Amino acid sequence: MERVKNIKNPDGTYLMCRTSLLALGLALTFFSDMRGSAEVVAWFMPVPFLIYATRYRKPKDRLWLLLVLVAASMLVLAKSASTPLLVSLGFSVMAGTVIGLHWFLTYIIWERIRRRTCERSGILAFPVVAVSFEYLQAFFTPFGDWGALANTQISNLPLLQTASLVGFLGISALMAWFSVLVASVLLKGSFSGLKVRLAVFGVVFLLLNVWGDLRLDQIPDGRYARLSAITNDFVFTGTIPDPDSPVVARTTDMMVANTQNAARQGAELAVWGEASTVVSQDGEKTLLDRLRGVAMSEQIAIVAAYIVKLPTGSRHGQENKFIWIDADGTIVETYLKHHPVPFEGSEPGIAPLRTVATPFGNIGGAICYDFDFPRGALSFARVDADLVVLPGLDWRGMFRRHSLMVRMRAIEGGFPVLRAGNEATSMAFDDRGRILASLPSFGPNDRQMSAYMPIGHNVTLYSRIGNSFAYLALLILAGLLIMTGRNRLSEK
């Protein structure tokens, strides 16, 4: 990158040079998300990029911005890399590229609007553009809500309650609003004309956090049930093992034995982690007959998640599924993973999401990556799910991260979630996202998490208005772009 002189602010002070801005932006991005991050850093992460986009507009400057954003996004995700490296690093590269591109477009479009309109429109534009692109990625790409600003705050429970109002996008909008206000102060070199706007943000921020704290003081009503999340010690290497291998047989025996043990400890429902065992098409019936026998003899409902390895030449190499077996041995649900991770090779499910009527409520289910897409939580909320079970499979680098992201869906939809996480951490959340139980699938434990969970659906504003907040952002964005275009024409 060529060396350039520093650029002066209107008051005579110096802004950072382009290299420093990009380096600072990369560092803030790296430390703002995934493990080893500081959540407060994410509130400032966009600031250097906003300043850079304003001051440096040549094609080569834009190219550097794109490269740094993509690299930063990849590095953030690569912080979770572990065995299997091909899977974890591959996801980092694919998702990081998409996330970096989406933020590049966000900064470029914001800068165009700000330059062609006014400062007030520029302050409105950044949260509007950020929300619009996060919505488009989460609902119309294979990468869900990865890279969303809101996901950097998954440990801030009072603030996360905002998701019950307008979904995760409300939190992202608040963070983008703060960032652009800070950038505006730095670009002007003073608080002149911004004090009122900063005060308005402060009031909104305070009210949302106080309201969220008060919401967390409420205790869920309704029936409670004892549930069990069961995982195993099999280490996934990225290759599906032979269904007839001794390792798979041992793993299956362990899952069955732990299911029986959970029943004898009082569990009414046992949920296996994603891909807890592997069977062939011919061997699936044998497994199901065995589990039906356990369900009837132990009087426990079972959500058995496993892989069916399909014959060579099939369009897809496998089925990633769960089978819901009621306590009377009846199979009441067969679910195929709706959103296989890119290049997973599983046959995607297409059946509408629904709930299963049980003695303790209407329960829905999905698999792991499915809940990185807000559409699923919204669908379950609209069929009044009293609980959602979520078999999951991660890698060691995720540990708690992916499970904690699930609490956003619980808050949006207003229902408890039980996630059984192979090679991760199993967690149980209530409808406020509070952790009711947690157990890692590592170390010297029996990999059976018992959770006493409230069963019931709490209607949220988001479950009623859906993505109206995103639609409003898109409408405002369209208006700002029209205004930008007209102003550009009038300048000619």
Q: What report would you give on this structure?
A:
α9 packs antiparallel against α10 (195-216) and α13 packs parallel to α14. Helix content is 49%, strand content 16%. It is built from 16 helices and 13 strands. Residues 1-5 have low confidence and may be disordered. It is an alpha/beta fold and 492 residues long. Strands 1, 2, 3, 4, 5, 6 and 13 form a 7-stranded mixed beta sheet that branches. Strands 7-8-9-10-11-12 form a 6-stranded mixed beta sheet, with helices on one face. The longest helix has 32 residues, at 85-116. It is globular and about 80 Å long. It starts with 17 loop residues before the first helix and ends with a helix. It has 2 domains: 18-217 and 467-491; 223-457, Carbon-nitrogen hydrolase (Nitrilase/N-carbamoyl-D-aminoacid amidohydrolase, 4-Layer Sandwich), CATH 3.60.110. It has helices at residues 18-30, 41-44, 46-55, 59-78, 85-116, 119-140, 157-160, 163-166, 168-188, 195-216, 246-264, 281-298, 374-382, 401-413, 461-465, 468-491, and strands at residues 223-230, 269-272, 278-280, 301-309, 318-325, 331-336, 355-358, 361-365, 387-393, 417-422, 425-429, 435-440, 448-455.
SSE order and pairing:
Blueprint: H1 18-30, H2 41-44, H3 46-55, H4 59-78, H5 85-116, H6 119-140, H7 157-160, H8 163-166, H9 168-188, H10 195-216, E1 223-230, H11 246-264, E2 269-272, E3 278-280, H12 281-298, E4 301-309, E5 318-325, E6 331-336, E7 355-358, E8 361-365, H13 374-382, E9 387-393, H14 401-413, E10 417-422, E11 425-429, E12 435-440, E13 448-455, H15 461-465, H16 468-491
Parallel strand pairs: 1-2, 2-4, 3-4, 8-9, 9-10
Antiparallel strand pairs: 1-13, 4-5, 5-6, 7-8, 10-11, 11-12
Helix pairs in contact: 1-3, 1-4, 3-5, 3-9, 4-5, 5-6, 5-16, 6-9, 6-16, 9-10, 11-12, 13-14
